[in-house]
Amino acid sequence: MTALQPLLARGRYSDEEWEYASAGRCGWYTANYPGDAWCGGPSDPKSIYRYCASHDEDAREYDTYGR
Fold first, then answer.
1. Does position 67 have pLDDT exceeding 60, yes or no?
2. How far apart are CA 23 and CA 43, in angstroms?
3. For 4-12, what is the mean pLDDT?
4. How far, in Å, CA of 44 to CA of 26, rounded?
5. Residue 24 lies in domain
6. CB within 8 A of 7, min separation 6: which ones?
7. Does 1 reside within a domain?
8. CA–CA distance from 1 to each of 24, 36, 43, 45, 55 (Å)?
9. Number of structural domains, the chain?
């Protein structure tokens, strides 16, 4: 596995997001889609929130970085 970005301050994550990010998994909330409520895919090494590549791209597009 490629090294991931360091975790941000604990307060930047919800409890669920923290669990996923700490495990190197994507914590993007997907309740609007069928299936699981959280993505859970492997984190992209370039994502500062440890999202998967697709959800990191979404976060940048919708400007959720720095929230």
1. no
2. 9
3. 92
4. 8
5. 10-61
6. 21, 22, 50
7. no
8. 10, 24, 10, 9, 19
9. 1
Residue 35 pLDDT > 70, yes or no?
A: no
What single letter denotes the amino acid at residue 8?
A: L
- The amino acid present at 9, given as its one-letter code, is A
User: Does residue 20 sit within a domain?
Assistant: yes
Q: What is the pLDDT of residue 31?
A: 82
The two tokens of residue 56 are 């990191």
Residue 3: inside a domain? no
33: its two tokens: 């889609």
**4 within some domain:** no
Distance CA 36, CA 67 (A): 24
Average pLDDT over the chain reads 87
Do 4 and 12 form a contact (C-beta atoms < 8 A)?
no
Please, which pLDDT band fits residue 64 given cuts at 50, 70 and 90?
low
